[in-house]
Amino acid sequence: xxxxxxxxHYERIRAEFGFPFAREEVAAGVLLRLLKPADRTEPLGRxxxxxxxxxxxxxxxxxxxGPPPLWxxxxxxMRPALLAADGATAACLEAGLVxxxxxxxxxxxxxxxxxxxxxxxxxxxxxxxxxxxxxxxxVPEFPGELAGSWAGPPRPDLIDVGGFTxxxxxxxxxxxxxxxxxxxxxxxxxxxxAPAPAARERKLAKLRWARELLGELARDGASPVLRxxxxxxxxxxxxx
Length: 240
Prior knowledge:
Layout: H1 3-17, H2 21-34, H3 43-51, E1 55-59, E2 81-85, H4 88-94, E3 101-104, H5 110-118, E4 122-126, H6 132-138, E5 146-149, H7 166-176, E6 181-185, H8 197-220, E7 225-228, E8 234-236
Parallel strand pairs: 1-2, 1-6, 2-3, 3-4, 4-5, 6-7
Antiparallel strand pairs: 7-8
């Protein structure tokens, strides 16, 4: 999504959750300091070369979903690209699936993301105002190729193509680099694994945004967005 269209959405998100933009800028600066020069170079172009023209299977971490059954997809000329959203990386690796791309703000099981990096995944690390300690702890641990993202205007060394949570951010990324189709696996906007009531409500509020944003991507994006259901069927994404 063009930043001019995305920015008003994020202004509404910042207002709802109280995210000070100054903290986003600090986090972006920390991430840039930690990234190697090669990882600051042409981040969107590097991802484009891995995804364009392929089906993008975006893997969420919904309770009970597990890894995507890629064998159920009809064969295509180009194998699907697998984009794992944060905590879904562990389930993919356990099933022997190495994600093409991992999209993370480092609040999940990061060691599995480090392992995926060592096996060839490009890890897109997102900087935001609440994860500076995680950036400093984990970015130096990744052995493979990284790209950086943040919530401000895109720039040559950091991307922002839209999206709020790791899952919908991965879908926006796939659309922006020319995925043939976007298949959403393991997305559930109504159930979360957060026992504390305050944490559960905050997570559900974020998922409401993810649902809405994916609906807009499905309506206006260039790549068809489909829900891949647990019964194996594919259906156009609907917010209702």
